[in-house]
Write a structure and sequence with these properties.
single chain; 131 residues; Lipocalin; 37% strand
């Protein structure tokens, strides 16, 4: 393949990722705010329980990976977002720092056994089951 073809493929891949991120942010902005205390049950969760792989359930197509080293990966098949994460156990929040574009997402967390629900203040809940 020539250089122009490789550049076009890279451009299409980047534009696909940008479009996906735009859609996620747009959907998040359209939802009604939810009460964080209600989502976390007013209690904290153990950050160590997040470590591992989480497969999306329902309409969620992503598989999330949380490393012990603070690395984060959101694999939606057509696009992969990588970065780092931090947890505030008392507040019940997860902060994801996306590496490539520098985006930051703060999610409230509900963790119950092998079920995980994360949600931005104005977002649609994302649900997962531990693999």
């Amino acid at each position: 393949m020539d250089r122009e073809g490789n550049n076009m493929k890279k451009f299409v891949k980047i534009m696909s990722l940008v479009l996906m991120l735009f859609l996620v942010i747009s959907i998040s902005a359209c939802a009604e705010p939810a009460d964080t205390a209600a989502k976390t049950g007013g209690s904290s969760f153990n950050a160590a329980d997040l470590v591992g792989k989480w497969k999306g359930t329902g309409d969620e197509i992503s598989t999330l990976t949380f490393g012990k080293d603070g690395k984060y990966k959101d694999d939606a098949g057509i696009a992969v977002v990588e970065g780092t994460y931090t947890v505030d156990e008392e507040a019940g929040t997860l902060t994801v720092n996306e590496k490539e574009y520098g985006l930051v997402f703060v999610y409230s967390v509900e963790l119950s056994g092998k079920n995980l629900t994360i949600q931005t203040d104005y977002g649609v809940p994302r649900t997962f089951t531990k693999k």
